[in-house]
TrEMBL record:
The chain crosses the membrane at residues 35-55, 116-137. Signal peptide: none annotated. InterPro entries: AAA+_ATPase, ABC1_TM_dom, ABC1_TM_sf, ABC_transporter-like_ATP-bd, P-loop_NTPase, Type_1_exporter. ABC transporter involved in fatty acid import. Transmembrane domains (TMD) form a pore in the membrane and the ATP-binding domain (NBD) is responsible for energy generation. It holds the Pfam family ABC_tran. Belongs to the ABC transporter superfamily. Lipid exporter (TC 3.A.1.106) family. PANTHER family: ATP-BINDING CASSETTE SUB-FAMILY B MEMBER 10, MITOCHONDRIAL (PTHR43394:SF1), ATP-DEPENDENT PERMEASE MDL1, MITOCHONDRIAL (PTHR43394). It is found in: Cell membrane. This is Fatty acid ABC transporter ATP-binding/permease protein.
Length: 636
């Protein structure tokens, strides 16, 4: 199992170094959809202009019409309330109490209901226009975000195919799956909920601010005076939310890694009675996710109430100062009403904007983790003009090869070896001697520290990796089959193979009889419920390797985990595979490699003994001792 501790995600402080650029980089992902985003901006602006900016002015005008009509009930014929108020102001009689004292107010008398009806119809039209614009903007946003996330998920999936094997050694599968699924989905959620609202609320705040200055500069200055208070409240809350969301998604990745490990080793957990330990470990990871999510959500949700508190303070100040201005005659009731609407919109949208920014912190935290993966160092690019291969004979030469996973731990040291076409080379040695590493180097899963590996005299470093791996077939100790039909699994390395070719490979590797006992034969879908044995998996993998027709074959002791009867079938299948191919057999049971053309005994990355089986036994060295130990262990 992969140790989740060794597969930890980058530390929060390491990710923090990239935070200033994360937002810009995420916005850069939107660039291919800029015309759709321009349409989102246009419709959002239309909705703001109609519902947030124009509507309060029209509503204030309706209020003034009602007030003018009421006052006009006691005015001379043909005189309007506005004209009468202007006349009274010109006479210095600006106190409204004095104005009301000169006019007999008759409620409703003199109101121009026809004109008022037209104004209210215009107001309704503005609200309908705002609704339509908002609906279109949200739909366009949904499409744009879906495309962005589609592209982002493809980038992550493609990146995983370009990463060196060493990257997967350092990161658990559960952690990488979390970035591909949870983090990408969280970015989508944040963009979907926040992007259109972010544009709309920003436009609304700026537009309302302009309209407040148009209506009353004094009242607008009062509103602006409270903004620093709002900033002082929102800034630390937002910063705290960002760090908590980063912690949350890191903890989620570790939780997924632990779940993946337990699921893969469920039988082992049950066999050793470690269920309580697993549950306790899960609870610890789950508790960390819960604490980080709770703190992040509480922090982000605290922004909007804080902004609402500032908005309420604004409302009180505007109501008091506005009333005094009305009494002084310098502003009408309708204008105060409009300003109160603008002030409410300003506070509401500013609070919503701060809340959205808080919610976006979760998406940005996930984006950091995604970009960290996308920025990981890839396999070195294939050289320009890489050589191509003709017919491959299979002569393999290791020329003074050295390799280490970490700078201070050599694994392969100055190894030289030549394997002739068609030879079978068995590689034996203690755990950690470098057996599997040697095969991985031949497949170019890792790059050499020094030396060369030649195939038919051509340095594989000068060949495209796909070409190198196309020359090589692999049968691993732990059989790997994907969910699909038997025929699809056999043809995995040669997807265009005909059914006749698939069946021929199955017959040659002794798998045809087993397949025909399955309910649907070669069309049987293999999944967890199929219940095929480890030996049957090995037979299918042998057929897969044979069908791909490799010039070089790597076998990782395919018979080590099967019963005696199945072992005979697997060995016969392997005999068909080995015929005429250069083969490297990573041997765990020495009794299976007696007929190998060459046996290499590795110790700490060096070849300490080489020769045929009997030669090495006669030399009475390390191989002889290893063989004797295995042989005595197998006796009753």
């Amino acid at each position: 199992m992969t140790d989740s501790g060794n597969a930890a995600v980058p530390a929060e402080e390491e990710l923090a170094r990239s935070r200033p650029a994360v937002t810009r980089r995420l916005l850069a992902e939107l660039r291919p959809h800029r015309w759709r985003l321009v349409a989102v901006l246009g419709t959002a602006l239309g909705g703001v202009a109609a519902g947030t900016l124009a509507a309060p002015r029209v509503l204030g005008h309706a209020t003034d019409l009602i007030f003018a009509g009421a006052v006009g009930g006691g005015l001379p014929a043909g005189a309007s309330a506005a004209e009468e108020l202007d006349r009274l102001r010109a006479e210095g009689r600006e106190n409204l109490a004095e104005v009301y004292g000169t006019v007999d107010i008759v409620p409703g008398q003199g109101v121009d209901f026809a004109r008022l009806g037209l104004v209210l119809l215009g107001l309704l039209a503005l609200y309908l226009l705002a609704f339509a614009c908002t609906l279109v903007a949200e739909r366009l946003t949904a499409v744009a975000v879906a495309r962005v996330v589609f592209d982002l998920r493809e980038q992550v999936a493609a990146k995983l195919t370009r990463l060196p094997l060493g990257y997967f050694d350092r990161h658990s599968r559960g952690e990488l799956q979390s970035r591909l699924t949870n983090d990408v989905d969280n970015v989508q959620k944040a963009l979907q909920q926040g992007m259109a609202q972010l544009v709309t609320k920003t436009c609304a705040v700026l537009g309302v601010l302009v309209m407040m200055f148009v209506v009353s500069p004094l009242l607008a200055v009062i509103v602006l005076a409270t903004l620093p208070v709002a900033g002082l409240i929102a800034a630390p809350i937002t910063k705290r939310a960002r760090s908590r969301f980063t912690e949350r998604w890191s903890a989620t990745g570790e939780l997924n890694s632990q779940v993946e490990q337990v699921y893969a080793a469920h039988s082992l957990v049950a066999a050793f009675g470690r269920r309580e330990l697993v549950e306790r470990t899960f609870d610890e990871h789950n508790e960390r996710v819960y604490r980080a999510a709770r703190r992040g959500q509480v922090a982000s949700e605290a922004v909007e109430p804080a902004m609402s508190m500032v908005a309420n303070l604004n409302y009180i100040l505007i109501a008091v100062v506005g009333a005094l201005r009305v009494i002084g005659g310098s502003i009408s009731i309708g204008e105060v009403q409009a300003f109160l609407h603008y002030s409410g919109h300003f506070g509401h949208n500013a609070g919503m904007l701060a809340g959205i920014i808080g919610q976006l912190q979760s998406g940005l935290a996930s984006a950091e983790r995604i970009f960290d993966l996308l920025d990981a160092q890839e396999e070195p690019a294939d050289p320009d003009g890489a050589a191509t291969t003709g017919p491959v004979r299979g002569r393999v030469c290791f020329d003074r090869v050295s390799f280490r996973y970490s700078p201070d731990t050599p694994v392969i040291q100055d190894l030289s070896l030549t394997v002739q076409p068609g030879q079978t080379v068995a590689i034996v040695g203690a755990t950690g001697a470098g057996k599997t590493t040697l095969a991985n180097l031949l497949l170019r899963f890792y790059e050499l520290d020094s030396g060369r590996i030649l195939v038919d005299g051509t340095d594989i470093a000068s060949l495209p990796r796909d070409a190198v791996r196309g020359l090589t077939g692999v049968v691993l100790q732990d059989g790997w089959l994907f969910e699909g039909t038997v025929a699809e699994n056999i043809a995995y390395g040669r997807p265009r193979a005909s059914r006749q070719q698939v069946v021929a490979a199955a017959r040659a590797t002794r798998v045809d009889h087993f397949v025909r006992t399955l309910p649907e034969g070669y069309d049987t879908v293999l999944d967890e419920s199929t219940g095929i044995s480890a030996g049957e998996k090995q037979l299918i993998m042998a057929a897969r390797a044979l069908l791909s027709d490799p010039a070089i074959l790597i076998l990782d002791e395919a018979t080590s985990s099967v019963d005696a009867r199945t072992e005979v079938l697997v060995q016969r299948a392997m005999t068909s595979l080995l015929a005429g191919r250069t083969s490297f057999v990573i041997a765990h049971r020495l009794s299976t490699i007696r007929e190998a053309d060459l046996i290499l005994l590795l110790d700490s990355g060096r070849v300490v003994e080489r020769g045929r089986h009997q030669e090495l036994l006669d030399a009475d060295g390390g191989y002889a001792r290893l063989y004797a130990a295995q042989h005595s262990a197998s006796l009753p």
